[in-house]
Amino acid sequence: MSSLKLKIRDIYVYTNLEVRLKSRTTKEEANKEVERMIDKKKLFEGYEWKIEGCEHGGINSLDDKLAGDIIERLEQDETDENIFWDGFTAHYDLNVGHIPVNTNLEAPLKSGTKEEAAAEVKKICAEKNLFEGYEWKIEDCDEGGINDLNETLKNEIIEIINKDLETCIQECA
Fold this sequence. Notes:
33% of the residues lie in helices and 27% in strands.
């Protein structure tokens, strides 16, 4: 296996988010907490949001756009359907599915040297074969985390690579 990876910074992907709520008593209290968060539009103050399956968050910016997308999604769904009891830690978690999030992506490369990797990346970009045979995931996440590997995402990745190929090829940690 190569010791090189393709790393794409600051790109929007559709993924699932989760946050630990402060409510520990009832689901009704957890619902009220989420409603307060929405009403006050203070989703991030005092909360550690993360991409589902990412131990260290994975979110590059907790901004107004992300808050608006989360609120819009929560208003579409029944809040109750997004709150889950975590029996291990006796907490409620709020899960929000399929939200565009600014994050970093990575995929292991097959090449052994930086020169070979540059040629490999140029070839997969030219052929638009970024997703065939490559395991893309959100940086530092155990699970893939990406909901949709689509044409738009593929074109955005290619655009970032074309701006600075050398920066996108990195050593695996």
